[in-house]
Amino acid sequence: MRLVIAKCSVDYVGRLKAHLPLAVRLLVLKADGSVLVHSDGGSYKPLNWMSPPANMRTLSPDDVDLETGVVEQWIVQSAKTDDRLIINIYEHISDSSHDLGVDPGLIKDGVEADLQRLLAAQIDLLGDGYTLIRREYFTAIGPVDILARDAKGATVAIELKRRGDIDGVEQLTRYLELLNRDPLLAPVRGIFAAQQIKPQARVLATDRGIECKTLDYDAMRGVDDSETRLF
Amino acid sequence: MRLVIAKCSVDYVGRLKAHLPLAVRLLVLKADGSVLVHSDGGSYKPLNWMSPPANMRTLSPDDVDLETGVVEQWIVQSAKTDDRLIINIYEHISDSSHDLGVDPGLIKDGVEADLQRLLAAQIDLLGDGYTLIRREYFTAIGPVDILARDAKGATVAIELKRRGDIDGVEQLTRYLELLNRDPLLAPVRGIFAAQQIKPQARVLATDRGIECKTLDYDAMRGVDDSETRLF
DNA sequence: CGATGAATGTCGTCA
DNA sequence: TGACGACGTTCATCG
Fold first, then answer.
1. Tens digit of pLDDT for each residue in B119-142?
2. Chain B contacts of A95, Cβ < 8 Å?
3. Nearest CA of chain A to the CA of B3: how many Å?
């Protein structure tokens, strides 16, 4: 990994075009050819970047005719697409390289899959007498997150989200339409379950006769005793 | 901006939990308190991070009881949420700070807004005799990208996307439902226009009587002579 | 490979 | 500030 602090301007040409005026920035060059251009603020997203795999050519004013004041030009070309990043360097402020080795990678806990596993194990959170039919119930248009049966024996399709938005309601609506064509299952009700449900999504769901259920992941995790410290 | 190369392990606790085992990584500390943890590969997304605004406390083994081998512990706490990043440093390899100043920011060209402007100017791309009613036609459930009239005088609602996906078709469907309740406008047809339309989206749109139109941004840009070199 | 859906999404805009 | 939609979304999974 090479780290460069430099006064530079940057142009991107590819899916769109973008331009960064002259300023001092951090340039990160990774082993796979990817390049990040960061300022001293904002979140993790760089001002501009090139995704791997990519190749970089370095041009000097001796080789090519460059704009006045440019001491070096980097041309970063994507190996797969015709996206290209052009960095004009006006002043090198710092330049260092480091050998980092391969990273063992990230271990996560608490994503939608975990939520689904927990709700399947605690299906009675949805109401007394609920029983699990199965998780990831496959249909022609994709898998229903959870299929269950309520106390009266009626089928219930559950769509799970961490954040409940309109498109999640649309998704569940499509599933319900399809499932209700199956005489063995019909009538099928829908439950939209999420840690947080947006007002518009709640309105749309209610309007379509879909029940909304807010989930408390921490509480669900606390109940599940198999869920003892991952790390 | 402070750049640290260090052998470290990282834990994130917040909306979910995540853990990074011991390895050599780049740690970027920005002026607004944000922190990025990068490996020497992958795209621009860090392995782990903290969004601004945030505050960092540095603990040493003299102050607190730390794990064996930890020479320093950073606790990065989000100022707004209770998200927290804990970085255990086992070895400092490099440490430098640089004053970057404020960045002038990015200038873009070719996003959906540009596409909309071009299509409004070249509305006859949709068919002979089309005329523009207006862009960003406001409704109770959001703005319709473009409202036009066809050669026969019928109203047409156009949803524009760079990449046409199912949710775009759903969006247009909601607009059409609403617009068709207005006796002054009804009947309103829909056109789903995008640079690229996914097969499933095309099927859904066609099934609902919505016309699909693929747009060539470069060609549209070439026709529009006001669109002379932005930079 | 392409298609599909989640994401600690992030980022802008506008009420 | 919160809701909403775009994004060079990126990312993993699955066919």
1. 999 999 999 999 999 888 888 777
2. none
3. 9
pLDDT digits 0-9 by tens, B79-108: 989 899 999 999 999 999 999 999 999 999
> Which residues of chain B does A105 touch, with a Cβ-Cβ cutoff of 8 Å?
20, 47
- For strand D, the positions having any atom within 7 A of a protein Cβ are 3-11
Interface test with A, best of B17, B26, B44 (most A CBs within 10 A): B44
Same domain for A90 and A117: no
Same domain, yes or no, for B66 and B122? no
A161 touches strand C (CB under 7 A): yes
Q: Is residue B212 part of a domain?
A: yes
Q: From the C1' of C5, which residue's alpha carbon is nearest?
A: A142
How far away is chain B from the Cα of A12, in angstroms, using its nearest Cα? 9
Please report which confidence band the pLDDT of residue B229 belongs to, taking 50, 70 and 90 as the band edges.
very low
Nearest-5° angle of CA A39, CA A45, CA A46? 40
Residue A104 lies in a domain: no
Contact B20 A167 (CB under 8 A): no
Q: Choose the final residue of a domain: B71, B97, B123.
A: B97
